[in-house]
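Issue: ligand-bound run for citrulline - logging full I/O for the record.

Environment: standard queue, default settings, no custom constraints.

Inputs:
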Amino acid sequence: MKFSRAIVRKPGNSYVNGLTTSDLGTPDFELALEQHAAYVEALKQTGLDVTVLEADERFPDSTFVEDTAVLTEKCAVITNPGAESRNGEIEDMKLVLPRFYDTIEYIQAPGFLDGGDVMQVDNHFYVGLSTRTNEEGAIQFREILSKYGYEVTIVPLKEFFHLKTGIAYLGNDLLVLAGEFIDSELFSKYKHLVVEKEVEYSANCIHINDYVIIPKGFESTKKQITDAGYNVIELDMSEFRKQDGGLSCLSLRF
Ligand code: CIR
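Outputs:
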């Protein structure tokens, strides 16, 4: 799949008060801003035209823009984020996405869905059931996307926070997988690039055009992806990891 654009949102001062389950400490806001700027540069390096939205202090987690929408070649789906403190983030997306899409669909209560629970593999979408995405949300998503000719498979999660916390698609039928997904029947038809438990944070990587962006400091993953023939860009993600964020969470790519 060829990507041409991305949408990101700068973290605000309130970022340090966002949701997290990690025990890595409070993020350094200035460093988060620097890491975010490097992320934007990396997206540009892959060939994307990047729309940078200004920080929204009302929503500490709003830099994790991926959770607010799923952007496909045929339509945009505005989600209904499962965390109460984040749900209002979609209001601004309702204003932004019509700049890029004529066809916009919505997940509606009692359905909840976070974009981090959705992975696209060519014409097939996988949607995880997590603490943020419920069955009703996943079924609505399947109904919407089937209208556009896409296939949707629902994946109950056991341990991962979001689906894409532990899995990424690199194109050419190749998946990066960690933990509970390694032996899952659902993904057995694809080629596997397995990342071990100690480095599973690097399973959340992003394939854009000729590049794969991975978090910095994961040498075994870097080697595997380089050996598979990809150009690798590494980014320091320390201040986003502290708030349970990975590389995919910071952008909508389309
Ligand atoms: C949250 O708990 O919602 C944020 N602190 C992290 C969201 C990460 N997003 C993602 O995995 N797609």
